[in-house]
Amino acid sequence: MNQLEDARDLAASLQEWRRDFHQHPELGFEENWTSERIRRELDELGIEYRYPVAKTGIVARIRGAGGPAVALRADMDGLPVTEETGHDFASCHEGRMHACGHDAHLAMLLGAAKILVGHRDKLPRDVVLVFQPSEELLPGGAPAMIREKALQDVEEIYGLHVISLMPTGLIATRPGPLMGSPADMTIRVHGVGGHAAIPHRAADPIVMASEIVSAVQRVVSRHVDPLQPSVVTIGSIHGGTARNVIPSEVVLEGTIRTLDDQVREDLFERLEQVGKGIVEPAGGRVEFEFQRGYPVVFNHEGAARRVHQAAVELLGEESVHFPCQPIMAGEDFSYFLQHTPGAFAFLGCGGPPSKVGESRPNHHSQFDVDEAALPVGAALLARMAMQSGPSLTVPKPTV
Questions:
Q1: Which backbone phi and psi does 232 adopt, to 5 degrees?
Q2: pLDDT digits (tens, 9 = 90+) for 59-80
Q3: For the chain, what is the domain count?
Q4: Of 11, 70, 168, 298, which shows the fewest CB atoms inside 10 Å?
Q5: Both 221 and 72 in a single domain?
Q6: Considering the domain boundaries, does residue 240 fall inside one?
C-alpha cells in the first residue's frame, strides 16, 4: 500500500479539518469544542474511543492484529495570541490562535486514522490515537494522559510537529536529544533606594542587576561544558520610576534552555551563586525563582531510525534530514518518551525553499502552515503505525 497516495486523496478533507480547527482555537484543558469535533469524526470512522481523558483528551483505538499497540499523538490546544494572518478562516476567538500548528497536527492524525481504517485488515497491531490537551500550558497535558492510562498496552509512540522554518514536506529527526528543556527564571534584586545625586547613601539595584545580566552569559561560556548546548537569556528588566531616583528593587525575567536536565539543574545552582556574589558585597539581597518546564525530548534510537526509514520509503532520501540538529524549544511529548520508547519528528511547513526565509516562526501572530504538508504528515503517521519490527526496550516509567 502507498500511504502517500492515500493521503493525497484526502487532501481536501485534511484542509477542511485543519481550517475548522484553526478557526476555533481553545486554550489548555478548555478544548471542549475541539474534542467534540474530533469525536464526531471518530464516530463517522467507526473508531472506538475513551473520553474524557485528562479533562478534554481522547484515547481512540483502531483494532489490528492485537498485541502491544503503537500510539500516534496530536496535541489540541491553541495559544493566547491575537491572529494577524488575514485568512478568511482566521480565529473567531479574540486573543486566541492556533499559532503553533496544533490544528495541523489534529488534521494529520485524523487523516492517518482514516487511512488506517481503510486498511484495517493489514494492521500488524492495534493503533492508539492520543488526542492530548494542554501542550502549551505547564505542567502540560501529557503527564495527566499517562496517569489516566492513555499508553496502557502501548509499546511505541510517535508524534510530529510542523515547523515553518523548514521547507514544506521535509522530515527531520534524530536519535537522542531533539528538543530542549526550558525553565523560566525570575531574579529579584533588592537594594536600598535613594536620591540619584547621593548614590553613596543607597545600594543601587540597577547597577547590581546590570552586572547580573553580563554575568549570566559568563556562567554559560565559562562554567558549562562547551559540548553541552545551553542558553540563558534575560528577556525583561523592570525597575525605577524616575530618572533622579534610585529604586529599591529591580526584577529580571529570563529563560534557560539546555539539552540535558542535569545541566539545567547545575545552571540553577551556579546562577544563584554568581548572583549572590554580585549583590551581597554591594549591600543588597537577591532572590532567584526557577520554574522548571518540560524535560528534554529524547528520542529512542531504534524508534528514530524507524521514522527515518519510513520517511525515506515515502519521500526519498532528499526529503529527509537525519540526523538533524536539535532545537532549544520545549515540548511535553518528552513525558511520553520517558514512559514509552518512541520518537518525535519535525515536518516542514514553510513553503518552497526559496520562501522559507519569509515565513513567520511558530508562536508568531502571523504563523501559517503550508497545507501541502498535511498529506505528508498524515502519510508518515500512517506508515509508522503499519510498521512492524523487533520490540523496543521499554524504559522504567518515570511519570
A1: -125, 120
A2: 999 999 988 999 999 999 999 9
A3: 2
A4: 11
A5: no
A6: yes
Residues 9 and 85 in one domain: yes
For 185-231, write each residue's pLDDT tens digit. Answer: 999 999 999 999 999 999 999 999 999 999 999 999 988 999 899 99
Of 248, 267, 292, the residue that ends a domain is: 292
Domain assignment present for 397: no
236 and 208 within one domain: yes
**pLDDT score, position 394:** 47
User: Does some domain include residue 338?
Assistant: yes
How large a percentage of the chain has pLDDT more than 70?
97
Q: Is the pTM of this model over 0.85?
A: yes
Residue 110: CB partners within 8 Å, gap ≥ 6?
Answer: 13, 14, 17, 38, 41
Arithmetic mean of pLDDT, 159-180: 97
Structural domain harbouring 36 = 3-178+296-386
* pLDDT confidence of residue 67: 83
Phi then psi for 223, rounded to 5 degrees?
-125, 5
Asked if residue 13 belongs to a domain, the reply is yes
